[in-house]
Amino acid sequence: MLNNAPLYNFEDHGNYAWLDEHSLNNDGQLNLKGWHATNDALNKKYHYSIILDGKTHREIARQNITNSSIERKDVKAVYDIYNAEKSGFDVTFNIANSLANATSIQLVDRYTDDPAGNGDATDYWFAPFTIEHGNYGSLDNVSIEKNQLHLAGWHASNSTANKKYHYIIIVDNTNNNRELIRIRLSNNVSRPDVAKVLPSVYHADQSGFDTYVKLTNFNFNHQLQVIDRYTDDPSGNGNAADYWYSSFGGQTTNQGWLDNINFSDGQHLTVSGWHANDVTNYEQEHFVILFDSTSNQQVAVVQAKAVRRPDVAKVYPRVKTAINSGFQATFDLTKSKLIAGHSYAIVSRYSTATDGNGDQGAYTDYWFRPNLLTTKAHYFDKVQMTKDGLQVVGWAVDDSSINRANAYLIILNNGKEITRQRLLLTSRPDVARVYPSAYNSLNSGFDTLVKFDPQLVTGQLQVLVRFTNDPAGNGNYSDQISTSYNSNVGNFDQIDITNTTLTVSGWHATDQSNKQPYQYLIALGENGQELYRWQIKDRNLKRLDVLNAVPYILNSSNSGYQLSVSIPNEIQHHTVRFIHRYTDDPNGNGNYSDIYSNSVMVNNLMRTPIDFRQSSEYAPYPNINQLKNFWINVKIGQNRVYMMDGNNVAYTMYCTAGRYVNGVSLTPTGTYYVQPERGNIFEWANHWTSWKDHGVYLFHSVVFDQPWHDHQYDLNQAKLLGVSTGSHGCIRLSVPDAYWIQHNVPAGTKVVIEN
């Protein structure tokens, strides 16, 4: 090469450059690599890199890179121009303070004769490149630990670069986004995982947070939302960059049921049931509270024992935690006394707190209002009179006994006290199974002999169970009383009368029997006058059936008697009532205890007085299958219906036939036949059977007092039975007689009606 040969092509006046690479790291360091070559750089010995806001063209920073040129033989090989082999650059700017606002950066590469980078310059303006301005975040953990809300996650954005204050804010979406709390974070958590994904986002490597929040005023049944905020304001307001994470919590179903209450031992109250609510994702401590609603105060609180409830999960499939909604809890009430008459509630509480009753954290309640302390029940398994007094076996529960510890049995005669006895209650697990929620039902039994003279019972015996606060059995008490037990009862099981013989048997029990050893049968006439009396020798017969029926009467097991005598003329053909009498007089007078029979017609089978509710005869109805020639004969004028067997009367019924109009009865006379139509009721009577015109003319009961008033009869019309005519054509009978015809007389039976 000649010494005067040119070193490069002076004729090329192009301005050439290329930005090979730009990168931004997590600390806001912008690295730029490239080259810039031009013949116009001759005599411009200063080399600058200048970065501008790509949108506003406002200068952000400049660097003198004159002494930091990078050798670029590749450029020289392409461009034979001044200093091409030294045209490269590799420069780094700290743009942290500009990241928040700059959406793009533009590089200007400058050759100038000015040491300050101005003056006569040759520039190359590279195309602007975009700065990452996405807003990224994730809430990795929302949980409850030690009655605090544990939040962990990250938030990264270049918009945070000029905002040195970091806050976590929680708002209640359900309550109009009301702010619940804000916490200033002093230390961020290293998140290299985030930096790996977001390498060009400012401080992505330190974008994490892990903090605990006090749960003041939190309601996890509301939708809550966490906001991560970077701001230039120490108070957490000002110019802020926020990230709103997805809401958590929210409106939940709050359902519950109390399955069982057991207070049977009187010292421990055990409850079980279920309370389903997905709030348990956050409120994971379960308390059960016994609350006195009357005095508005807590009585006791226990931690619940969890029970799996697949049945609840089946009914409430949308409640994800329903499978674990069951609970059981036992309150020790040996020190916490309940008060009779107060109203109580059982409260199931889910809480974030672990201590006390859970009210120092966020909590959700379900109130159960059982009928606690309202039970009052008793039963006497055995009430049996002995010569020494009354044997009483049974049980009694009374929730008011929680404040009335003294139990008594009090014996009454006609409402007045005979005696009392204090009870020592015994175990009754059978009662506890039926009344588990009743106070002390496990210890509700008694078996005692209350001593007194049975002769003191002269009327209605009653047994009273009392719980009282008074050791003597008075004071403030709560009573339960038995039904009335009649002390003098009996029954005439048999009164058989033939033409010549009277046979009577039955039983009679009275508490006076020990001191009234004589027994008599006395016959009274129609006007109540005595007609005859017999001393009963065959007495004190074994009657275990009577003992089972009336054990509360002395000697009821030996209360039977029987008597068979010739009928004296004094009672023959009379309607009589019999008296069975216990007496202390050998002649049947003195002090006595009587029972009376119904009226009986001696040797007259027709019932007197006439009673439309009973059969017409004392004798049983005939068995039609045993009669050879059965037919029915109606005598209108006699007010009688005869069940005939050929020419013999098998049974006689009182009747009321059609009234007479102009001397003719409204009941048609002649021969008819019973028809198939029959039934239990029609508009005006019961038990009808048709004998003419298929439902027009009937045998039926006495008539109702108003249409369709089943078994409610017109008493004035009933008085006509067996006495007078009065129907519109049908034949009225007593209720049992009409029933018997309906169910026993077949269709086709001949009916002869005579005037």
From TrEMBL:
Report the GO terms under cellular component: extracellular region
Q: Does the keyword Lipoprotein apply?
A: no
> Which terms in the Gene Ontology molecular function aspect does this entry carry?
peptidoglycan L,D-transpeptidase activity; transferase activity
Q: Which UniProt keywords apply?
A: Cell shape, Cell wall biogenesis/degradation, Peptidoglycan synthesis, Transferase
The record's section on CDD domains has: YkuD_like (cd16913)
Family annotation (InterPro entries):
LD-transpeptidase, LD_TPept_cat_dom, Transpep_catalytic_dom
Q: What is this protein called?
A: L,D-transpeptidase
Q: Which species does the entry assign this protein to?
A: Limosilactobacillus albertensis
